[in-house]
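In this section we walk through a basic example: taking a raw amino acid sequence and producing a predicted 3D structure, encoded as discrete structure tokens. The instruction is simple. Fold the sequence below.
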Amino acid sequence: MVKLDFEKTGGLLPAIVIDHESREVLMLAYMNQAAWENTLKTGKATFYSRSRDKLWIKGETSGHTQLVREVRIDCDRDTILLKVEQTGGAACHKGYGSCFHTRVENGSEIIDKEKLFNPEEVYQK
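The resulting token sequence is shown next.
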């Protein structure tokens, strides 16, 4: 098993997720040791939800899973990069393909992407 430095950052490491073909940055999430191990074991991106205080497999509610195609770690062993196949087209829980759908220009926020789904329909909160 590949050893990462979870101790340095209090048990959570940032995980950058990009589309394996387009190389677009889809999202940033966090992994603890259990999420890391589950990701390697299953091939599905698994993260630690800080707000829910539990593991979550990306897409378990929406169906928009991330199938891991390549895993990279940085030289300090404290950051993870996942290259994934994004199923369903959307990585963002707000309905966008990427969580980085807002551009800052001249001090203003500009949403420059289209929603791919309505989150109220998908998550029915």
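Looking at the output, two observations stand out. The first helix runs from residue 33 to 42. DSSP finds two helices and eight strands in the chain. In the next section we compare this with other chains.
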